Amino acid sequence: MQQYIDINGQKILLTQELIDSNPEILNQVDGKSAYFAGRARGCFDTDRIDYVVRKQEYKYILPLSIALVLVMIISNILSSKLVSLFGFTITGGMFIYPFTYLFDYVITDVYGFQYSRRVVWSAFFSMMFFTFAIWLVIILPPSKFWHLQESYALVFGRMIRTYVASSITFLFSFMISSYVFQKVKVKKGQGYLFQRMFRSLLVSEMVDTGLFCLIAFYGIWPLSSMLHFLMFSFSTKVVYETIMYPIVTKPVINWFKRAEQSDTLDSHTNFSPFKWEINYKQENNLYKA
Question: Residues of 212-233 as b/e, b for ≥16 C-beta within 10 angstroms?
Fold first, then answer.
């Protein structure tokens, strides 16, 4: 509804831009017009305040983000060892790496793609810094009292390529997973959690496993070993996530929704991976107690 104010007998359309650009205009209005001006300003600020409160009230987004980074770094360290399991060669990191997708589903479904995008970029740069730190310590001259330089360089030096592959793979696969997850949510609505998870899982795991093998092992492993690793890794992760869905994934997501009173729909989100802002409004929250 448009509101006009009276200034010296002249009716002027009251807008927020008019008040911001010429605040002295309020000194020229009568009492009734000043009241409507205050209401207009108050409504504008209320929208902003509501947005700020929604951002600050989340209790678990920071611990979840830290936990995701921690699991990724530990997974990288464990990948220093190759393990034989039922005749297949896998990295030690595969025993905890599938847990990272639980963080992805929780953050994306509860807080939205915009938060997930920030977390993914933050985790990526943390992992790259970890890799840089490992490389730097390797090339620094060892103390004359320390005689494990060769062993240290042998174990960790050979893993630099794997660490870089893991970081790049994480960035692409998790960004794609969050994108598919929320795009299906925008199209289908609040339900269909398993369908959203399974679709994003299939696409992201194909990217994750294929890209990691290509960057980490091309030219090092025989092609047959790479294919075996790719097939076993992909199948294991998909089966694992499918089995864990009713036992862990769904209950955990629902718990966080209740705890945060949040179920975010990215109906107006710019899904570019290079955006950083978070601009959700109250209508993006589908949670109902």
Answer: bbebbbeeebeeeebebbbebb
Output the pTM of the full model: 0.75
Q: Are 119 and 67 in contact (CB under 8 A)?
A: no
- What structural domains and CATH numbers belong to the chain? 4-48 (no CATH), 59-284 (1.10.1760)
pLDDT tens sequence across 109-127:
999 999 999 999 999 999 9
At 88-114, the pLDDT tens digits run 666 777 778 778 888 999 999 999 999
d(CA 122, CA 280): 20
Contact criterion met (CB below 8 Å) for 68 and 119: yes
Distance, CA of 196 to CA of 237 (rounded, Å): 16
**Does residue 52 carry a pLDDT above 90?**
no
CA angle 63, 65, 67 (to 5 degrees): 65
Closest CA to 104 of 92, 94, 117, 122: 117
CA distance 95 to 132: 24
**Residue 114: its H or E element:** helix 113-139
